[in-house]
Amino acid sequence: MNEERINKILELAAKRQGNMTVILENVMDYHNLGAVMRSCDAVGCFEIFVVFTVPSKQKNDLRLGKKTAAGSRKWLKVNYFTDLKTCFEMVRSRYQKIWCTALEADAESIYDKDFTESFAILFGNEKDGVSKEAMALCDGNILIPQVGMAQSLNISVACAVTMYEAYRQRFIKGFYGENNPNDATTKQIILETYMERNKQKDRVRSVPVIKNNYDK
Q1: Is residue 208 domain-resident?
Q2: % helix / strand / coil in the chain, to the nearest 5?
């Protein structure tokens, strides 16, 4: 590995945000999955969580194409679940707050939310949104203010808008520089993960379902 490549990986690892993530519940369109991954990679997420609770939609492999993800899959850890509670238990063990995107009466604007704390944001599927079961496991609701007739955005667009507001807030506080919130252990894990993944050839990656959780 040449020096330029090493420096690029070091810079990538140094800017990763180990205390923010996204959960996707029953998002069926692989193009949306890939687009979400691309946005999460762009703002510095280290991992995301994908959960499919609909038996007929659960896959032996979660296939993500190169074109939509644009190479982001290699640098984004994907945790795949088929059980909602198991998924949330792992998220809770790593992140302090879980907010869901739902048009509820108590929903707060993303522009009034503090995204500099440790958090996960849950996005529901394209048709039904966040399930009631998942909503009950969250700490509150957030929304993207809109003045149009539809009052909804495509899942991948909603994720991008929300996560870039998080990026804006974190950038102001220097989280992508000297004030990076990761502790020493997290920094080392991220760096070692990326050094190992750099050895892998670029290819279409699939995520096999193993005991409700793939964590690699």
Answers
A1: no
A2: 40, 20, 40
